[in-house]
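Researcher: Here's a chain I'd like modeled. Treat it as a single chain, no partners, no ligands.
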Amino acid sequence: MKDFEGNEEKRGSNIAKHGIDFLDAIRVFDDGYRIECETERQCERRLQTIGMMDGIIIVFVVYVARNHKKRIISARVACKKERDAYYGAR
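Model: Modeled as a single isolated chain. C-alpha cells:
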C-alpha cells in the first residue's frame, strides 16, 4: 500500500455504490495484462485501468497519480464492453 493513498469517505461511498473496496481494487495493478488509458476531467489528468482482480473478476478503476502515489477515485465491476476490450487486448 505504500504506492497508494486514499480517502476514507470516498472509499466508503464506493463500497456502498459499487461493492468494491479500494483496498481490494489495488490488486488490479498486479495484473500484467491490464489495459490503461488516460483521460482528463475537471482539468485533471486521470488514468483508467481495466484488469483482473484476484484472477476472478475484471474491474474498471479510475485513479490519479500524485506525488508518486496512486489515488483511486472509483472502482467497479467492468461492463461487457470493458471486459471485451480486456480480453481483446490479451
